[in-house]
Amino acid sequence: MFKPDLIKRQYYLDYIKPFMNVNMVKIIVGVRRSGKSYILDMLGDELLKHGVELNHIIYRLFTSIDVQEGYSKKEMYNELKEQMQDDKKYYLLLDEVQEIDGWEQVVNTLFETCNVDIYVTGSNSKLTSEHISSYLSGRYILISTYTLSFKEYLHFKGIRNDNLDDAYKEYTLMGGFPIVATSRLSLQNAYQIVEDIFHSIIYKDVTNNHPIKDIEKFNRVVKYLIDNMGKTFSANSIAKYFKSQHREISVESIYNYISWLKDSFIIYECNRYDLQGKSILKTQEKYYLSDISLRYALFGYKKTMDASILENIIYLELRRRGYEVYMGKNGNKEIDFIAKRRDDEIQIQATIRLPEDSSREINNLSAINDFNHKYVVTTNRNDVQNINGIKVIHIVDFLLMENW
Hints:
By secondary structure, this protein is α/β, with parallel strands linked by helices.
């Protein structure tokens, strides 16, 4: 059942370990094929290493063929309950539970009435805090998973400390879906897999769960969002764009489409943060992809994408490390990223290379009157330097730093 020879995603294992045997449901969420089942396998192997008997670890995949249409929450409950034969603790590893209507009630009942430690995974809005809070309020922890970081990509590919810059270029093209990293695929074949993952997400987590009347318009909005990752826009501006193309799409529909794409973890929202007013602004937000390969798989590679791809990689790395990530607004100056994690804050500008007049990248950070760490992240090693306490750092070094 569990694979002891797995390439460990140690970050997630270390994150979850302190919550083992804590009386809370552990809910692991993220985009499809990002490795949630893989993490459950690691947990199962870890439990065995800690002396838990195999028959007290109950693993269930709810996308398997034996879960037929009409499989009910009552059947789910009875099936799991029947496997608990004594009063010892059982560990429930429940994979892709969103496939079962009412799974929350089942988990809640087992949590309240049985000696269990429960871990569940899922890929859409049925596992967001808003959806599950009515059943598990205050009794769960949400653990976000992402596709492979650059550091994990190196580990999966067996790449050591040589040729890291070449490995980064490969990573920017191939992306971080584990199935791609663990296979020897051409770029074309990798993109075919990523495109299939994308269409699977769209069908299973969006169009299959929401009342989309005009699929053609929906698909156009999705592709527009993906092709404009990292740019500021609003539902109104998208509606105006399509109107200029003689295609009427209501602002309400666009809001719905964006919300459903966020719920399926295809995109993440990055709001603006007013550094002077210390408040989050709800206009002109940006969106970033859950994996950069989605953009290449759908649109192919264009040199003009490089800047937004760099931003996307930085954004995801900040999210992986537990930061809340915003665009920064400081008067009339813009900061690419303000990242907050409890009392920690870092401020980042991203650039392919520093122009000869680097005033925007440096001065916008210098104008922030605080003592937080400030970085300009570049893809050009010749730019690396320290300017008045602002570190200009290469993207590879930034991604591999243990602490910023």
